[in-house]
Amino acid sequence: MTPFHLAFPVRDLDETRIFYGGVLGCAIGRSSATWVDFDLFGHQMSAHLRPQAAPAPSDGKVDGILVPIPHFGAVLLMDDWQRLAARLEARDDIDWLERPMVRFKGEPGEQATLFIRDPSGNALEFKGFRSLEQVFAH
């Protein structure tokens, strides 16, 4: 698998470093006065300073639940997802949109999922699968 790259807007680089580096545990890469790179589970995420950045509305619907569009995140194997979910649940400063749950239970593509917002209001979804072959199952 090769990593993807995503550039996204943030209001403040210092709070973004604390959240992605400290809360999510992302390694911090190169940076400047207007952007910073993070390693999000092997993918290159570039946070670009945009003080006017606004949160995405929760107007998408998946499995009967409203979710923000756009959103981004990572697909993880279940053990990694469970560790991340436990790490986030142990904190009292997480902006939860959807607490850890299982979606499509008993169906092809069954997945664990959680939604949070970063300090700039960007919506993140982390999915957990028992096998990566299930990611595109239908």
Automatic annotation (TrEMBL):
Superkingdom: Bacteria
Lineage of the organism: Bacteria, Pseudomonadati, Pseudomonadota, Alphaproteobacteria, Hyphomicrobiales
Gene3D superfamilies named in the record: 2,3-Dihydroxybiphenyl 1,2-Dioxygenase, domain 1
Domain (VOC): residue spans on this chain: 2-129
Protein name: VOC family protein
PROSITE patterns referenced in this protein's UniProt entry, alphabetically: VOC (PS51819)
Organism from which the protein derives: Mesorhizobium opportunistum
PANTHER family linked to this entry: PTHR39434, VOC DOMAIN-CONTAINING PROTEIN (PTHR39434:SF1)
